[in-house]
């Protein structure tokens, strides 16, 4: 077994609202590690991190990279991961903090952990309360009732994906749907019309959908606006808006499988009874 180097990396989540959603373990890493590096858009969370961290580094200015010709969000994320690794290579214990869950729509943490482990450093991730957790609670949805499909909006648009209309469909980042430049932070009605046209191969134009935005601080209200699918191109969206599409059809029983399972159950019940008869 290889000896680990002096530096260490832990990626934590601050939850969607931080207050009450920050786990005790994540808090202990933030307060005790040598440096906290964060990509947290919420001002209140940033202020708190700055106040409790021994040293604080903000990554948000890295987004300016997208204004440079030839650079995209991929370059931004790569530089963020490199900034984290730079501190780890200095032998520091580094806590990288991300809002929500550090592993959900946060490729930076996955990149940084993979790089750190490749270089022989100890690195791991601690879970946090994500936008999906908030969505389930705010909308009163149980993914186990009908099943759930979850994918990024632009990925859904450009790949051939099979949608199950009997299950819930969650499309993340609908507010930047269709951006192939990886430089923009908004979408346009024309892009949204393309995704609506694709969705209408499965759902009716009048199918009710939900525009969801989790509250990120105590003074903010959760958004859960219900609109018709065909109205999506004219809807006001943010980068954080999620499109939630409830099931359109009822689930159909697969009778062949049900019969096979019943046959197995019947045989298991019948076998002990047969043994009892033979032993009499």
UniProtKB/TrEMBL annotation:
Signal peptide: none annotated. Gene3D superfamilies: Cobalt-precorrin-4 Transmethylase, Domain 1. It comes from the Bacteria. It holds the Pfam family TP_methylase. InterPro entries: 4pyrrol_Mease, 4pyrrol_Methylase_sf, 4pyrrole_Mease_sub1. Residues 8-227 form the Tetrapyrrole methylase domain. This is Tetrapyrrole methylase domain-containing protein. It comes from Undibacterium rivi.
